[in-house]
Write a structure and sequence with these properties.
There is one protein chain. By secondary structure, the protein is of the alpha/beta class. The chain folds into three domains: 34 residues; 134 residues, Response regulator (Rossmann fold); 154 residues, 3-Layer(aba) Sandwich (Rossmann fold). The protein is 51% helix and 17% strand. Helix 3 packs parallel to helix 4, helix 5 runs parallel beside helix 6 and helix 7 crosses helix 8. The termini are far apart.
Length: 368
């Protein structure tokens, strides 16, 4: 009996130790789980804190950006510095002459410099204008991105900057005060609509387009292309056979068009050119190739030069979208408004219109 009791006590002791061990093991598992949960919570909290800090930093940056204040001069002390991108076309020459004439008429001092299409030169030009004491800077940018250091230099001194005819990829109202220009996207859309209507009326199902672009990097080139492509995507039957720059040059455009016609066998329905100079060059190439404008091919430009209007009358250009270079009056009105303490909008559009044989006479006064 004693042996049996001893065995029973031994078994009881073993079961007790096993149960205790199991209990301790369970407690350890719960503790580990709790630790893991705590670690995950801490990680999540840290991540949230990091995101909150980033959001606060962004908000602080935005607040700082919004707090940018331009120091407008007194009207009697106004000295405008105008950085022109280039004078490679009639349009740019007229634009610069218009700025000078408007300043003279209002009795303001103005200094005009020409970057000759060189971005580094333009940055240097703006620095020079600031050194000369110009207290309002107007810029027609060579390149929308490359102009940023010039904008920063002006902002550092509090000198108001007005973008003219070509914009910047900076923040409107922060990196520059305002932008006066034609709506380049709308110009491209006008051209696209005209091409679609003309080709549809002619029964062309797939519209084969050669897009002759201006100087790459400018907002005018980017947006005129975007506008035309907006219509192309909407209509769904445009085929862009060629997209090539001719740098706003009549001579280059003539050469590009001649090569396009040779490589395609003349199988082009529309030449869409980013300015009239190139449209006139394309017209020469098409005529040399024996094509009849408005029968074999359509040619659309942008600008509204008198020479183009005359070519529309003669049937050697199909259409153009006006882009008036004479809006210095709007720019100086804006400068005077800024000096008077008025809040300027970030963009002011110069109105444009599509001109072809049906309305060239009534719009001829818009030419230059």
């Amino acid at each position: 009996m004693k042996k049996v009791i001893a065995m029973l006590l031994t078994l009881a002791l073993v079961f007790s130790m096993t149960a205790c061990g199991a209990s301790m093991e369970g407690e350890t598992t719960d503790t580990d789980a709790a630790a893991e949960t705590t670690e995950e919570t801490e990680d999540a909290a840290a991540e949230t804190a990091e995101e909150t800090t980033e959001a606060e930093d962004t908000a602080a940056d935005a607040e700082t950006a919004e707090a940018t204040e331009w120091v407008w001069p007194a009207l009697e002390d106004l000295h405008v510095g105008y950085s022109q991108a280039d004078l490679a076309s009639t349009w740019r020459t007229v634009e610069s002459d218009d700025m000078q004439a408007e300043a003279d008429e209002r009795g303001y001092e103005i200094t005009i410099v020409n970057a000759e299409g060189d971005t580094e030169q333009q940055l240097s030009d703006v620095e020079s204008l600031l050194t000369q004491g110009c207290n309002v800077i107007v810029i027609t940018a060579v390149d929308a991105d490359a102009i940023q250091p010039a904008l920063d230099a002006c902002k550092e001194k509090g000198v108001p900057v007005i973008m003219k005819a070509r914009g910047s990829n900076g923040v409107p109202g922060v990196d520059y005060t305002t932008f006066y220009s034609s709506d380049f996207v709308a110009e491209g859309e006008f051209a696209g609509e005209w091409a679609y209507d003309a080709c549809t009326e002619k029964g062309i199902e797939t519209i084969k387009v050669a897009e002759i672009q201006g100087i790459l990097g400018g907002t005018d080139v980017r947006d005129r292309s975007q506008g035309f492509h907006n219509i192309a995507e909407e209509k769904g039957n445009f085929d862009f056979v060629v997209q090539q720059t001719a740098n706003f040059s009549r001579t280059e455009a003539q050469e590009v068009a001649a090569n396009v016609l040779q490589s395609t066998g003349g199988d082009i329905d529309v030449f869409y050119c980013h300015n009239d100079e190139m449209a006139l060059g394309v017209s020469l190439a098409c005529q040399s190739a024996g094509l009849t404008i408005n029968e074999d091919v359509y040619i659309i430009g942008v600008d509204g030069m008198y020479e183009t209007f005359d070519a529309i009358k003669d049937g050697t250009i199909s259409a153009t979208i006006t882009c008036n270079p004479r809006f210095a009056d709007m720019v100086f009105d804006g400068i005077e408004a800024g000096i008077a303490g008025e809040t300027l909008d970030t963009f002011y559009a110069v109105p444009d219109v599509a001109v072809d044989a049906t309305n060239v006479e009534e719009n001829y006064h818009l030419g230059f």
